[in-house]
Amino acid sequence: MKTTGRLYHAHSNTFIYCELSLSDECVVFSNDEGLHERLPKPRLVLGMAIKGQAQDITLPDGRRFLCDDKTFRLNQHSTSSFIERSEQHKGLVIGAIFFCPLLLYWLFFIAIPHVAASSAGHLPQSVIETIGQQSMTLIEKAALEPTQLDEQKVANAERIWLELINQLQLNEQKYRLGFYQSEFFGANAFALPHGQIVVTDDLILKLADYDDAFRAVLLHEIGHVEHRHSVKIAAQTAGTTVALAIVFGDLQGIVDLALGVGTAIMQQQFSQGMERQADDYALSNLLKLGYKPEHFATALEIISQGTDDDSQSWSKYLSTHPHVKSRIEKARTYKHP
């Protein structure tokens, strides 16, 4: 077996033309200029055989041989040859076309969320605190302004908040309440992984005459923290970012991981199951503390006034997962399990 090609010097683009021939278990490189080099085949490093490309053959000293015949293969019965034959197998190609999307779906919609949910319960508090603080810094810069509420409304909201924290016997150092003006969020409240609860001025103003409804909203947000929903979203975002970087070869995306996690929390849209868990937490604790579950229904109704339920509102309370009307109905008919 013989073929001609180019023999490149090690770490260089310069080359000489030569002939490659097989003799027993050795490979001979020769040309008319006096080159005659005999090497055992096992000492050569053979590149993967890819259809339409010349096989790369590397010599022990780093020189590389590329043959002119792109169909020439020094390892006809190797794994590379199997890969090349597989690329030409129509059945395998069609199977890959259907299998790859299914694999990606399983990875991003089943495996990563499952791992994220499992890992969220094992993250140290110091890590959760860091995620929460970084996310809060991003959200403050992007969408929040100092509160414009008067002292009386802030004092009343803080009174309700502290009553809840004491009644639920929660850690005052972990759970903190913040007031902000935000055109971006509108009448809204959201919870960060480390226990920071943010309420907007518009929400306070809408619920100014409904203390019990405001209390129900706070309980809903505390429920998100207690069930670590934001932590799960952060873990899922981090896992997805790493997986995408590996699958598509963009490892630089991992550098932006912290920013991506913060953005995900800022734009958090909790799943149907997460919303139901937070709703149940609020409703059960309203009953436990001597309040009526209907107060949560009142809060949903007031917040949703003048808002198209099908619009892309940032308010989680108007999320269609589940539909706000079903959440109101559930709150009005709720009985402790």
UniProtKB/TrEMBL annotation:
InterPro entries: Mito/Outer_Membr_Metalloprot, Peptidase_M48. GO terms for biological process: proteolysis involved in protein catabolic process. Residues 154-333 form the Peptidase M48 domain. GO terms for cellular component: membrane. The keyword Transmembrane helix applies. Its cofactor is Zn(2+). The chain crosses the membrane at residues 92-116. Keywords: Hydrolase, Membrane, Metal-binding, Metalloprotease, Protease, Transmembrane, Transmembrane helix, Zinc. This is M48 family metallopeptidase. It comes from Pseudoalteromonas caenipelagi.
